[in-house]
Design a protein that fits this description.
Oligomer: single chain
Bound molecules: S-adenosyl-L-homocysteine, iron/sulfur cluster
Radius of gyration: 21 Å
Distance between the termini: 32 Å
Number of strands: 12
Length: 344
């Protein structure tokens, strides 16, 4: 049993059942999530017998770290699950803080044509403890505290709602990693039903929401993101307009710019038209496509990227450009090619 699959409440119940005082659960989670101590032997406020019992019955790490690759402003961590799948986590050094980009699934069923993760379809959901362990292992190898999490690694987080929710609960609870809800971002390709569920979920609706739009028209979006046949752009925008954010909070609209596919001035104008009504509700992140030898697309020249941004600016829509340094080694954190190079 992974102790990192449990909330404080659940662990208190567990320890109560084995006849310990419930506060033992608080002590154990304090070691793990506050002090990043992962060896039960070192949990010195527990008795020797208790430590031995924990060691015999519980595990903390659910992933094995295989490799760390450094490049530019990021570090990529390759992990292997106990059943042999490879996943990837990226630590990004931003100006004054660290952001960890975590994976939520092995593969992805959404099938976006520009995304390396889509290649093999969905293999399986990650469990809460596998999401949490990405954070724990990366944090224990990092001096500074990591305070920002983005669910932009492999997989569609809202298609793995329960496990992602549990991991988020551990991340934002005072007894857990104690991160601010505003510093945890869920990036989704726009699953309508799951977004509606999120909008009604006390815990999830306060997170940062990022939605990958990637195309300003239904036709083009369908060709890039097959899920949008059933999760249409129109319905998606409707859900986003109705998303229960306070007036000062904005939803991040993500747009991967692909050369000659969705990067022209006309596309920008169309996107501006689409978002205009929500000028105060949205901000836009432009992500220049990260090339991959197996994908038939190219990154646009920077002048197209700036041109696109200018059109949106002129319509009063705040628009940022997200480029990670060292693109030869790392994709955007959403573009993961490691699986291939490990298996070959
Ligand atoms: N499944 C979720 C989160 C993971 S993908 C989603 O789609 O939002 C995270 C981001 O990476 C998405 O915005 C996606 O559009 C982007 N992305 C995927 N492949 C990319 C590529 N080759 N280059 C640049 N961005 C990419
Ligand atoms: Fe899945 Fe996101 Fe990749 Fe689309 S972009 S295939 S939703 S991981």
């Amino acid at each position: 049993m992974y102790i990192t699959s449990l909330t404080l409440q659940e662990l208190r119940e567990e320890v109560r059942q084995i006849g310990w005082e419930p506060y033992r659960a608080d002590q154990i989670l304090n070691w793990i999530y506050k002090r990043f101590v992962f060896d039960f032997e070192q949990m010195t406020n527990l008795s020797k017998e208790q430590r031995a019992f924990l060691k015999d019955n519980y595990l903390i790490h659910s992933l094995d770290l295989l490799n760390v690759v450094e490049g530019g402003d990021s570090k990529k961590f390759l992990f292997r699950t106990k059943d042999g799948h490879i996943l990837e986590t990226v630590l990004i050094h931003e100006r004054d803080h660290l952001t960890i980009c975590v994976s939520s699934q092995i593969g992805c069923a959404v099938g976006c044509t520009f995304c390396a993760t889509a290649k093999d379809g969905l293999i399986r959901n990650l469990r809460a403890e596998e999401i949490i362990d990405q954070f724990l292992q990366v944090q224990s190898l990092t001096k500074e505290r990591i305070r920002n999490v983005v669910f932009m690694g492999m997989g569609e987080p809202l298609a793995n709602y329960e496990n992602v929710r549990k991991a988020v609960e551990i991340m934002v609870s005072p007894w857990g990693l104690d991160l601010s809800k505003r510093r945890v971002s869920i990036s989704t390709s726009g699953l309508i039903n799951q977004l509606k569920r999120m909008a009604q979920d006390k815990l999830m609706k306060e997170l940062n929401l990022a939605v990958s739009i990637n195309a300003p028209s239904q036709n083009l979006r369908e060709s890039l993101m097959p899920l949008s046949k059933t999760n249409t752009l129109e319905e998606l925008l409707e859900v986003l307009y109705g998303f229960p954010y306070p007036p000062d909070r904005r939803i991040m609209i993500e747009y991967v710019l692909i050369h000659g596919v969705n990067d022209t001035v006309d596309h920008a104008k169309e996107l501006a038209r689409l978002l205009k009504k929500g000028r105060k509700k949205f901000k836009v992140n432009l992500i220049p496509f990260n090339p991959d030898p197996e994908l038939p697309y190219r990154r646009p020249p920077m002048e197209n990227v700036y041109r696109f941004q200018k059109v949106l600016w002129e319509e009063g829509i705040s628009t940022f450009i997200r480029i990670s340094k060292g693109p030869e080694i790392f994709g955007a954190c959403g573009q993961l090619r490691s699986k291939r190079f490990v298996l070959r």
